[in-house]
Amino acid sequence: xxxxxxxxxxxxxxxxxxxxxxxxxxxxxxxxxxxxxxxxxxxxxxxxxxxxxxxxxxxxxxxxxxxxxxxxxxxxxxxxxxxxxxxxxxxxxxxxxxxxxxxxxxxxxxxxxxxxxxxxxxxxxxxxxxxxxxxxxxxxxxxxxxxxxxxxxxxxxxxxxxxxxxxxxxxxxxxxxxxxxxxxxxxxxxxxxxxxxxxxxxxxxxxxxxxxxxxxxxxxxxxxxxxxxxxxxxxxxxxxxxxxxxxxxxxxxxxxxxxxxxxxxxxxxxxxxxxxxxxxxxxxxxxxxxxxxxxxxxxxxxxxxxxxxxxxxxxxxxxxxxxxxxxxxxxxxxxxxxxxxxxxxxxxxxxxxxxxxxxxxxxxxxxxxxxxxxxxxxxxxxxxxxxxxxxxxxxxx
Length: 397
Hints:
By secondary structure, the chain is α/β, with parallel strands linked by helices. It is 28% helix and 14% strand. It contains 13 helices and 13 strands. Strands 9-8-7-10-11-12-13 form a seven-stranded parallel sheet, with helices on both faces. Helix 5 links the parallel strand 4 (116-120) and strand 5 (144-147). Helix 7 (175-190) packs across helix 9. The two termini are 33 Å apart.
């Protein structure tokens, strides 16, 4: 791939009115494309962020006249090609993953002129939190950090949380693929696909009664973008949907989708009335082992647990115990407390577990669509409009 600066062809403005954008693109791992309608649901006015960032947000709301773009990512990262769509006037000043790499391209005084940072990339192309922390003190003019991932637990550090820097992420980009996965998992157990596979392998023709999803209750733990997308698909199957979220008032407009919204202290009640439970929660200190042993014990004997959120949000040992004892019908897991999943984990051997290696959202387009969202947000930033997906740094999402 050609260097990003030459690829974009925007090293200097052609007119006085051209706007230059100061962005660091930091390569970062992970993880989830949503439609414009869903993105608009997550738009927050810049002036409504935390008090620490209110004055800086007010300045952002007026638009910017001079901004440069610093890409902190492996130059070979395929999705960086999307940056060709950045608005005219965007100037990419350097590309690299670490302080050492970036310092070879930037003079010391240039660091302070950077006011936007993008964190993107997967695997070897991903920048790490410790790399960002290493040059964080140099970013004295930073105003906005965008993560191309939905999850923030691998990015947040105290200096970032305490700073006036506005943080946004890629919520919604991964929602539909994960919703499809969740309903596929429900069907896996409803139709007893393991039995079909075993019968095929044995060349055995034994018809049996299958279960419909229609009329069954789907409980969604974490009714954010992924949870809502899952609920909408479940309604297409004519399932009854109940949900749990911290702020129940945010679901007032979804009464045609969700029949009841529970608060976190009512988790065991939701678990007890659900035939299928889909966890779609981000990982924060408050969601650590949220799906506790007590919550799992409250599930129906034929209940199925599906996790498309974060593995650490579940008491994995309690879940394994319930699966081994067949106190629940089964589980479908795309995420785990430790990843990669250790070879000695009992989950590998359990016949009532459907597993995938944290790739349910890894479609051919997922990172490119995430970058498309960033380009859209840059356009809004330059125009002084509200940013999409502004996060609450203290809450972690």
